[in-house]
Amino acid sequence: MNTLRILEPRPEAPQRLICLPHAGGSANHYRGWATRGRTDVEILGVQYPGRADRLPEPCHHDLHAMAEEVCAAVLPELDRPVTLFGHSMGAIVAYEVARRLEEQGRGVRRLVASAARAPHDPAHVSARGAVWNDDSAVRSIVAMGQADAELMADPRVRQLVLPYLRADFELFQRYEYRPGPPLACELLVVRGADDPHVTHRQGELWRELTRGSFRHEALPGGHFYLAPEPPLDLYLDPLGPCREATAAGSAADGELGRQPAQSGAAGQAGLLQQARDVLLDRAR
Questions:
Q1: Alpha-carbon gap, residue 42 to 27, rounded angstroms
Q2: What mean pLDDT is predicted for residues 266-278?
Q3: Which of 26, 88, 114, 140 is catalytic?
Q4: Number of neighbouring beta carbons within 10 Å of residue 14
Q5: Cβ neighbours of residue 8 closer than 8 Å, sequence gap 6 or more
Q6: What are the backbone angles phi and psi of residue 189, rounded to the nearest 5°?
Q7: How far is the C-alpha of 281 from the C-alpha of 91, rounded, in Å?
Q8: Strand partners, 111
Q9: Mean pLDDT of 213-222
């Protein structure tokens, strides 16, 4: 089992950044991050089974089992300080990995929860029991601007992508938060200011999950605020003082708070890059 991908080897770098993809994503999503000027960090991507170069393997059907696999892969990488980064569904997996590492007497320097509701938030995912529909999911993804209609009309892309996209949707739907002690590591929450799926109030709920330093940032953009320029300095540099909610932020949160719960289909965004990655991997 080969869970981690070293995106560019940097054996002399003093720290590591391990990135866990969103639902439907792969390690390839982070390939460009290794060439963005930060030579002081070695960046690794988590490759979930059932996609890209692990396409023949069965997908996970339980998020806790996925976290166990990733935890086992991360343990040998803790010879240097590690920041765990997870986007959307990947943030929940990263949180569960951080918990397991601390239960074993190990731990990471920081958890970065990007564009995700807290795992103990009852509204962290849409109503359980929602039924997956390929066509409506594709329409939703295209409407969000994260894939183009022509690409998703290609039967080859749909045949490759939809099975693990559906598996991630169902895995996320079944996830059950298990109460436990707060993390000891730093926790940085980052969301897009225009992302209707994670409000200020929902981002603040992550604060309850750590006794370490906490910071909550809203950056320009939506659910995929981190494309095309990921804020690596924010993810890796010292946290600095915690930001407090402003009156304007609270008012905006009131508006966003009336948005519907995060839908499974919307959580699958970012498919355009993923579909291209799959086709490239198959062509190699």
A1: 14
A2: 44
A3: 88
A4: 10
A5: 34, 35, 42, 43
A6: -105, 125
A7: 25
A8: 84, 187
A9: 96
